Amino acid sequence: MSSHAIPVAGPASAQPNPFSRRAVLGIVLAGGALFVLLLWMIGTGTGFGSGNDGGGHAQGRGLNGYAAMAQYLEARGYDIDMGHGPDDLNPDGLLILTPPADADGREIDRIVSAHRYKGATLVVAPKWVAAPVTDKQRSEEKAERGWVNLVSARPPEWRGFLDDVAVGLGRGSEEKASAQKDDPARWKGLGVAGRLPQDHVLAWGEGERLIPLVTNGKGQILAALLDDGGSYPDLEEVAQRPRRSEVDDEDRYPLVLVFEPDLLDNFGMARPQSAALIEDLFERLEIYEDGPIVFDLTLNGFGQTKNLLTLAVTPPFAGVSLCLLLAALLVGWRGFVRFGPPATPERALAFGKQALVANAAGLVRRSRRYHLLREPYAARARAR
After folding, report:
1. Which of 129, 212, 268, 352 is 20 to 30 A from 378 via CA?
2. What number is the average pLDDT over the span 115-127?
3. Is the bond preceding 316 in cis, omega lying within 30 degrees of 0?
4. Helix (H, G, I), strand (E, B) or coil at 168
5. Alpha-carbon distance 311 to 202, whole Å?
6. If pLDDT is split at 50, 70 and 90, which confidence band does 159 have?
């Protein structure tokens, strides 16, 4: 006879961990960093579309945009910022507004009025109606993203904002006189002189409260200071003209209106005279490099409201967010340094007859009918 060894079941053993500690740590850190980056992008709007859409604002790189002006000021050392919300539009410095022609005049008036006691305000009126470049221009002329074609001109319609000030629009080349001094495309003011990049469509302002700062060859006002009783810069033009406003509020900072956008937009900033005009204007308005300059983008459709993500990182909720982050890091570290791999758990239900006996015993135990078991148990024992 031959004997065979009978295997004996041993205790449950732990399963080996399929991932090393370094791999788990790398996956957790990479996933956490990507998640935080996603939350930051959602909260700030970064990466969800560019402002270079061909519009007339500080992020537009077309002829009607003002990206060149913003880049020039930043290169000169000014603190440049883009205003995407109401909290960004009250800096202790210069606020520049470039609203579109169909903007809400009451909203413009609200923004300007709220900032007049914080710093100077510069409002640039629009003129051009632009269209994106065609696919043919992209291929043949190598047009870049955000470039536009100047289709036509349109004056602004801002009902509710300076209704006593009108903006005129006309063709300068047809009205230009023979003498160069009467050229409507030539401008002068603030000690600087130059010529507009085009002379077929010009824009100017009209109003009794306007103090001319920049005029063209025909005497039309291209840029002006509003006479509303506020403080005025040290300008010869202001000294020569008596004030018309009956209100005298020295705490109110000046408001400058630019009716001809080609003085400051990308179309005009190609000429050095526009940069010199900015330098002289900022010096007269006492805008220095240590003061911030904010370009408003809310009126151009790039406004952002506060959401739960932005509130989570601002006081007083920043402390709660920090505590939750530290708790999550603590739980993750505790799970990472746990002692050994997890042991194999026991089965909740046993196999075969053992399961039947266990279930029957559990039923008797729960019913507490022990006295009913004596006679059947004794009869079974006698039979065996």
Report:
1. 352
2. 91
3. yes
4. strand
5. 46
6. very high
